[in-house]
Amino acid sequence: MELFVNGQKLDIQLENEKTVGDVLKSFQEECEKTQAATVTVCVNGKNISAEEFDETCKENLTDSTKIELGVVSKTAIDDAFKAQKEEALKLAEELKEISVKFQTGKDKEANALITRLADLIDSVCHTAGLSALFPESFGKISIDGKNFMEFFEDFSPVLKDFEQSIASKDTVMTGDLAEYEISPRLESLSKALEI
Asked: Distances from the Cα of 99 to the Cαs of 52, 95, 114, 116, 181, in angstroms?
């Protein structure tokens, strides 16, 4: 049997493990000791869904069994939130100048800010989803009194308006949205990620 964690092959010795479920149970016990959680399971090249999990756990181990696990640790989530906190703060300031960049022909710089904003939002949403695996550590994160889902539900219409203002080359609206709607939200997000 081969066991891979986040793409790295582990050198392990089986003790009393006879099934895929035995291996996963032993691995989960180790994860709990190190504040980590398994987020994906792949057996013999097939991603295992929640519906298939119980049946897959019953499979007997063979020499050719290959188990690949995706694991996330509390530390990795902490680190991601710290980086996102810094990026949110930087972007909050830089976005205040986006309309000036568009008006002075610095479209490339302005577009780079928009890309960074999209990347940040994507990254925070992904990390927030993973953070739910550690509710005791991250469950109390509140952004202006809202959880992540509520915050992004409120933020979404603003981002749509921002996208439309850029598409229609309305630099005044783009600047107003960036300075008065997006930047304050990014500052609140940054503050909330001070864990």
From this structure: 51, 8, 12, 16, 14
Q: What is the pLDDT of residues 74-115, one digit of tens each?
A: 999 999 999 999 999 999 999 999 988 988 999 999 999 999
For residue 126, give the amino acid letter.
H
Side-chain-facing half-sphere of 185: CA atoms under 13 Å? 22
The pTM assigned to this predicted structure is: 0.84
CB 85 within 8 Å of CB 193: yes
Query: Among positive and negative, which fits the CA dihedral 102, 106, 108, 113?
Result: negative
Backbone angles phi, psi at 27, to 5 degrees: -65, -40
Judge whether 171 and 106 are in contact, CB under 8 Å. Answer: no
